[in-house]
Design goal:
The protein is α/β, with parallel strands linked by helices and about 230 residues long. The protein has helices at about 10-15, 15-30, 35-50, 60-70, 90-95, 140-150; strands spanning about 55-60, 80-85, 100-105, 125-130, 155-160, 165-170, 175, 185, 200-205. Helix 4 crosses helix 5 (about 90-95).
Length: about 230
Amino acid sequence: MKKIQMVDLVSQYEKIKPAIDSAIMDVLQSAQFINGAEVAGFQKELELYLGVNHVIPCANGTDALQISMMALGLKPGDEVITPSFTYIATTEVIALLGLKPVFVEVNQETFCMDASKLEAAITPRTKAIVPVHLYGQAADMNAIMAIAKKHKLFVIEDNAQAIGSDYHLLDGSLVKTGTIGDIGCTSFFPSKNLGCYGDGGAICTNDDLYSINDLLPGSCSQTKNV
């Protein structure tokens, strides 16, 4: 039986080697290694692709989640609902900020948060919901957003495993996952759906309250009233 490698980064590179080598040389020659022209260009392209007002590049997907929760003004002791089946970073960030993770089981067909079990997990201390889109499949965002609106909760989408996926809203419009809640977060770790060489991440939002400065660590004083 032939073994199938789930992620073959070498083969991926070899297929687009000339373009990658040229882009890397451009960066080396410009010496703009952090927030240079290439990052700015990618930011604008991702905004257009996702159809959002703002994309904020950051170091990795974990930072994207942390910065988002800080920007929303979540305080130690606040409860954040997230699926029980997810990568550790989703819960790690909640604990790191002194928040309390509250787990909801996943739908066995999609492996995403089971929206039918979400409302039972909400308490007076609940402040946010973090649905995780997984394996290219979207969580039930129509139901999740309706519940969030009813209880005045923030929604932060963890879109690290489904960037590029389309989702049909109740009004019939088609949108990208990660653009439906208050903030969407993604990771560009090499093995992700859209991977980079090294580590990277991004935050996206349509809310003009969250400017680039508001979403940077140490300056997250801007909060949204609910």
